[in-house]
Write a structure and sequence with these properties.
With about 625 residues, this protein is mainly beta. The protein has helices at about 195-200, 290, 335-340, 470-475, 485-490, 520-525, and strands spanning about 1-10, 20-30, 40-45, 50-55, 60-65, 70-75, 80-85, 95, 105, 115, 125, 150-155, 165, 180-185, 185-190, 220-225, 240-245, 260-270, 290-295, 305, 315-320, 360, 375-380, 395-405, 410-420, 430-440, 445-460, 505, 510-515, 530-545, 550-570, 575-600, 605-625. Among the domains are: about 10-100, Immunoglobulin-like (Sandwich), CATH 2.60.40; about 290-380 and about 500-505, no CATH class; about 395-465 and about 525-625, no CATH class.
Length: about 625
């Protein structure tokens, strides 16, 4: 089967959100019987993954694309309804009680399958078919608005950024509130290694949370265990709930030996919103002395040639005070005669009087650049503004799975790739996954099973977040000059000798960066890169001792090595440095279990588990850094 999906993801830097033509719908969901607001109701835009849940008062707010006009409103124990949107942006919904018994089965603790109606705690599940498999989205984000009581916060816009899940709110104001993640019975680590500075918006990189390694295409279902009893078997680490992920398994193929499932997805991302930049004034902070440097010449080599009383010429160039990183300079509409008149320079009667201001740009002082050396240019708004710094990110996903089996054995082998160029220049994320699931019935009562997964992720050029020295976005919005052209900076960020070519020169005669780097120097020279190699899975054996008693033994392992490198190049505005960090995390769990499922008489049934577990967890950290490189 071949599936092809094309998604348009328009993303905003620093909290970028998926954006398109849209409207905001709000309202309250109440119960028919009592008229009270119902918290935790799922409100979804039909045909999309956009959704939310109601708050404690039953209120909701949802952004809806203009080409969608149907909301699906659902809650456990209530009839699911669809609401067609009209012109009104306030949509209140009334739900009626649905009198029916919950049927079906879910995977619960330790991989045990139970009927929903037999559980003594809350559990909801999400089928894998409902998940996007384009690879562009962290699979954790897809729980948002789909499961009551689950709140997902994502760092959208940060390539490979973190997502946080809260189940039934915050349990600790100072500790960890993340749920425990388990795949096919294997506990997997979901740490993030962001620094305190990154968390508080003071620079640094968002390396994402480790659970994003999961390939959505391999998922058969996700179950969320929310009750205290649901997490009891996993100990204190499951105090915030459990997210159980069951992966796809092999199956016997009708009329053929091997089934092949292939899908490919293409996604795009663009910056959706930017601040409204003014385009009337350029760099500077007021008067001539504060904004301009005036460079005079004995000959007539300057741009301005003003006749003197003795018949000679006063020749000079206007040069920016390039060290100023603000834009309170002269208006682009100013004429040279009118503007310079206020500072004792009389251009009356010259060809320059009614011309725009001409000045020496930052890239006109290098003699090797014969195209621009010594040339003045017009004082005007840039032809290529901040928006031109960003690019259209492209994500391409390919997944292929081979499934086969007989009555005695089944196997599934899946291969996946995801290659993405981000919206920032010189950014790339590549992820490759291999998954092998198999089960074999050696005898009538003896079964062996295994699940093995390998993932490697390589990333280069994650965007720095917050107030950092190498975050171009922060410089665009807080420190900079508005006349700067992005295309010119892109083509002129480095000199032939390897030194930086920055707009933020110390002076006309000193090219040393005063405060800010050329943004393309940051993206090409001051970048980070990281690589994570991970394998997790299990191998086990089970024996059906009697029709109501089964023994099972299993070994689970999750192991990864995560290497990060950060650099600030020599000739940067900030101090040069290099840092390398290698983290290795490994957890193994050896367990045995006796499972009892026996019916007594007609209405009595006993489900019991007895077993033990031995866990071994190890974490190694090696870090080295240096600074003031030469």
């Amino acid at each position: 089967m071949r599936k092809f999906t094309i998604l348009l993801a328009l993303m905003l830097f620093i909290g970028l959100q998926v954006a398109q033509a849209q409207r905001t719908i709000s309202g309250t969901v109440t119960g028919y019987d009592d008229g009270l607001g119902i918290p935790g109701v799922t409100v979804l835009v039909k045909g999309t993954t956009i959704g939310t849940v109601t708050d404690v008062d039953g209120k909701y707010t949802l952004t809806v694309p203009k080409d969608k006009n149907i909301l699906t409103v659902s809650f456990v124990g209530m009839k699911t309804i669809e609401v067609t949107l009209g012109a009104d942006n306030v949509v209140n919904v009334v739900l009626r009680t649905e009198v029916q018994e919950l049927e079906g089965v879910v995977v619960t603790a330790l991989g045990v399958t139970r009927e929903k109606k037999a559980l003594g705690y809350s559990v909801q599940d999400l089928k894998g078919d409902a998940l996007q498999t384009d690879g562009s989205a962290n699979v954790i984000n897809q729980l948002s608005g789909r499961i009551a009581g689950v709140q997902v916060t994502s760092a959208s816009g940060n390539m490979g950024g973190s997502s946080r899940v809260l189940i039934r709110g915050i349990n600790s104001i100072s500790g960890n509130n993340n749920p425990l993640y388990i795949i096919d019975g294997t506990i997997i680590d979901n740490s993030d290694f962001n620094t305190v500075n990154t968390a508080r918006g003071a620079g640094g990189y968002d390396y994402g949370n480790m659970a994003q390694d999961i390939n959505p295409d391999d998922i058969a279902s996700i179950s969320v265990l929310k009750g205290a009893n649901a997490a009891a078997l996993y100990g204190s680490r499951a105090a915030n709930g459990v997210i159980l992920i069951t992966t796809k398994k092999g199956a016997k193929q009708k009329g053929k030996e091997i089934g092949i499932d292939f899908n490919t997805g293409l996604s795009f991302e663009q910056v959706a919103y930017l601040p409204e930049y003014q385009n009337k004034y350029g760099g500077g902070n007021g008067g001539l002395d504060a904004t301009w440097e005036v460079k005079t010449y004995q000959d007539n080599s300057g741009y301005y040639k003003v006749p003197a009383a003795d018949g000679s010429y006063q020749s000079f160039d206007l040069g920016m005070d390039y060290g100023i990183d603000e834009s309170f300079g002269p208006a682009y509409s100013s004429t040279a005669g009118k503007y310079l008149e206020g500072y004792g320079i009389d251009l009356t009667g010259t060809e320059y009087a009614n011309q725009p201001i001409y000045y020496r740009p930052w890239y006109s002082f290098d003699s090797w650049d014969t195209q621009n050396y010594g040339k003045s240019v017009e004082w005007k708004a840039p032809a290529h503004d901040v928006k031109d710094f960003f690019q259209t990110g492209l994500g391409w996903t390919n997944n292929i799975a081979f499934t086969g089996g007989s009555d005695a054995a089944q196997v599934r082998l899946a291969l996946g790739t995801f290659n993405s160029s981000g919206y920032m220049p010189e950014s790339q994320l590549d992820k490759y996954t291999v998954s092998l699931n198999g089960v074999a019935n050696l005898t009538k009562n003896l079964q062996v099973f295994s699940s093995i997964n390998y993932i490697t992720t390589k990333t280069k050029g994650r965007p720095e977040t917050g107030y950092g020295d190498v975050n171009p976005v922060e410089r665009f919005n807080q420190w900079g000059q508005r006349q700067l052209d992005m295309e010119i900076q892109k083509n002129n960020y480095i000199n032939p000798d390897g030194t930086q070519r920055s707009w933020n020169r110390t002076s006309m005669d000193d090219p040393t960066p005063a405060y800010s780097n050329n943004p393309y120097w940051d993206r090409n020279m001051n970048y980070q890169n990281d690589r994570r190699d991970r394998y997790y899975g299990n191998i086990g054996i089970s024996y059906q001792i009697t029709p109501w008693l089964k023994a099972q033994g299993k070994f689970n392992l999750d192991n990864y090595v995560f290497r990060t490198q950060q650099r600030v190049a020599i000739y940067s505005a900030s101090q040069s440095s290099y840092q390398e960090v290698v983290r290795q995390n490994s957890e193994s769990n050896a367990e045995f279990l006796f499972l009892v499922d026996k019916t007594f008489a007609k209405d009595w049934r006993l489900n019991a588990n007895l077993g033990g577990n031995m866990m071994n967890r190890r974490y190694n950290l090696n870090s080295a850094s240096t600074s003031m490189l030469i």
